[in-house]
Amino acid sequence: MDNLVEIKGLTIEFPMRAGTLKAVNQADFSIPRGQITALVGESGSGKSTLASAVMRAVTSPGRIAAGTIRFDGEDILALSRKQLQAYKWEKASMVFQAAQNALNPVVRIKDQIIETYRAHRSSASEKQIVDKARDLMDYVRLEPDRVLQAFPYELSGGMKQRVMIAFSLLLDPQLVILDEPTTALDVITQAYIFDILVKIHKEMDITMLLLTHDIGVVAKAADRVGVMYAGNIVEAGSVYDMFKRPKHPYTAKLMKAVPSLYDDLSERKAIPGSPPDLLRMPPGCPFAPRCEHAFDACRKASPSRVVWPGGHEASCHLHPDSQTVSIAEVRTS
Questions:
Q1: Where do the DSSP E strands lie in 206-291?
Q2: Model pTM?
Q3: Band (102; pLDDT cuts 50, 70, 90)
Q4: 129-158, pLDDT tens digit by residue?
Q5: I want to staple 237 with a disulfide (CB 3.0 to 4.6 A). Which of 198, 241, 252, 278 is the partner?
Q6: What are phi and psi of 180, to 5 degrees?
Q7: Pairing of strands 36-40, 224-229
Q8: Please, where are the H alpha helices in the chain?
Q9: Residue 271 burial (C-beta neighbours within 10 Å; 0-12, 13-18, 19+)
């Protein structure tokens, strides 16, 4: 598979008074070129932190303690300040959670777009920038004449979110990262925005990374899915395999927790318990305290990753290649 982004052994730490918090723990993850990849998991699982590392935007006091991140073969952790400026927005851009708050409330949308564009390409004329902005506003189904002259407070939440999506496309990046792009919006507006995103992906051939806890959105939009739990990538595979043949108990329970119009709601159950305290991680598999299939090996050692044909992968002691006990012992434990 041709991967635009390859993450290997990524660990991101936040020093705290009570100890060191590992928000991302030895994560291996890839983003295939030309696809929509989703990263799902409960709040606090590390999705946003991992994505911010891809943008070299981990906030202080956080730091990347180990691992590599390669974008189109280039190690972005080794980029100079000047190279990093060219990387952001021109090669990879990000729509942050509640991104509408990133707009300056007292500056017109047009002026904010011009300022952003010229920070990267100072020689561009105002007409060139405005013409590009008008095309993008049309693309995200906004009225250019109205929106470009508007202040952010004159726009609705859904309109501001679409403005930020247009911002992310301003310099024709290869990758767009979307962190919960429909947070705080009503379900009709959410569906409308995801239709736009799928259209952008198909017509502009832009690779996307979608961070969400909404499994329904993943089924509709994504080609490939990664699942995070307590800072760990516990499973990754095609969207079909993840829904039809999940390999990790956490993934299976996530699927069972999603309400459905097609079956008995009594079969839908919340995952018991809570994610672990990242400052006091249990030994072994982080999901073991909540897993009904857990046995002794799960509580003692972290499982290794098992990869199946087709690129489906999971880290779980239930699979023979990831532990030393036999499968018969697993089934009878």
A1: 207-212, 224-229, 232-238
A2: 0.90
A3: confident
A4: 999 999 999 999 999 999 999 999 999 988
A5: 241
A6: 45, 65
A7: parallel
A8: 47-54, 81-87, 109-120, 126-139, 144-148, 157-168, 187-204, 215-221, 239-244, 249-257, 296-300, 327-332
A9: middle
